Amino acid sequence: MFSIYDLIKACILFTNAVAIINERFLIKVGCERPTIDSPQTIKNRILTLLYGDFKMILQMPLIWINIILILVEVVFG
Fold it and tell me: Are 69 and 12 a contacting pair, CB within 8 Å?
């Protein structure tokens, strides 16, 4: 049965996936790091977030959220 907990867990897993995306993978699919003088398109804004801001902002909170999620899974199954 689908619950709120499953939805939260799916969001955390998706956030983990986005946070660990490799720059080499992004380059292979044609998403190079935008330069300062690149046009401000939605794609370039998302790539700017993926290449640096997202990883820097969410690194420590994600570590703690993952630890809590693992402990909940171990305790409650």
Answer: yes
Domain assignments of the chain as residue spans, ordered by start: 4-76
25 by DSSP, 3-state: which?
A: helix
- The count of C-alpha atoms lying within 13 angstroms of the C-alpha of 45, restricted to the half-sphere facing its C-beta, is 3
Q: Which residue is it, tokens 């996936």?
A: 17
Instruction: Render the burial of 39-70: b for 16+ CB within 10 Å, e for the rest.
Output: eeeeebeebeebbeebeeeeeeebeeeeeebe
Record the pTM: 0.65
Q: What is the pLDDT of residue 39?
A: 84
Residue 15 main-chain phi, psi, to 5 deg = -65, -40
